[in-house]
Amino acid sequence: GMGGMGGTPFGGMGGMGGGNAARPPAFDQLPQGARVMVRGLVNAANRNGELGRIVHYDQAKGRYQVQLEDDDLLSVRPENVLQLVSNVEIAGIESKPQLNGSKANIFNFDDKKKLYHVRVQKPPQSMAVKAHNVILPNGTKCRIFGLKSQPKHNGTWCLIKKHDPSAARYEVQIDAKGNCLRLKRENVLL
């Protein structure tokens, strides 16, 4: 079965994982060490925009522990971190077709306009692009937005399994059982 969520004392991790018996993250959780930017905080708004790394996910509180660059620790909800994904691919930009196929790194996200801020690697330049112009790598943890046919999935965290370039759709895992949906790129956001 797919136990493991209930915090049982019988984790079966003996002998694995160099002295650190942390279980691997769930399919929809960011791994330890993932680079993130803090966003959308209200009570600690002065921390928005700060960079850090995931220390761990606190299952009981439903929050990530994030170590900021100044070594402060913050406990934040998943929606308050932006994973800074490297090696995304630019696709489908009609105004600058020479950029399509370029690799880029995400460094910010404009929540109101739903635009990623990316730094294209070659030629080096920063730009804002729509979600459907960014192909996120397999294994990226994301959230589902804007589904009209199956709105119950909106807000669900998911894992990108693969991308189908001909259909411009991701196959995303939506639960621990491995169930998947095929979604347009604009419906899958960091």
Describe the protein.
With 190 residues, this protein is an all-beta fold. It contains no helices and 15 strands. The chain has strands spanning 35-38, 51-58, 63-68, 73-76, 81-83, 88-90, 103-110, 115-120, 125-130, 134-135, 141-144, 157-164, 169-173, 180-184, 188-189. The strands form three sheets. The chain has a five-stranded antiparallel sheet with strand order 4-3-2-1-5, with no helix packed on it. A five-stranded antiparallel sheet has the order 9-8-7-6-10, with no helix packed on it. It has a five-stranded antiparallel sheet with strand order 14-13-12-11-15, with no helix packed on it. A hairpin with a 4-residue loop joins strand 2 and strand 3 (63-68). It is globular and about 45 Å long. The model is unreliable at 1-21 (pLDDT under 50).
**What portion of residues is helical?**
under 10%
Unreliable spans are 1-21
Oligomer class? single chain
Shape: globular
Number of helical stretches of at least 4 residues: 0
How much of the sequence lies in strands comes to: 35-45%
Largest sheet: 5 strands, antiparallel
Distance between the termini: 29 Å
Rg, nearest Å: 18 Å
Round the mean pLDDT to the nearest integer and report it.
89
What string, H for helix and E for strand, traces the elements in order?
Answer: EEEEEEEEEEEEEEE
Q: Based on DSSP secondary structure assignment, what is the total number of beta strands?
A: 15
Q: How would you classify the helix and strand content by structural class?
A: mainly beta
Strand order of the largest sheet: 4-3-2-1-5
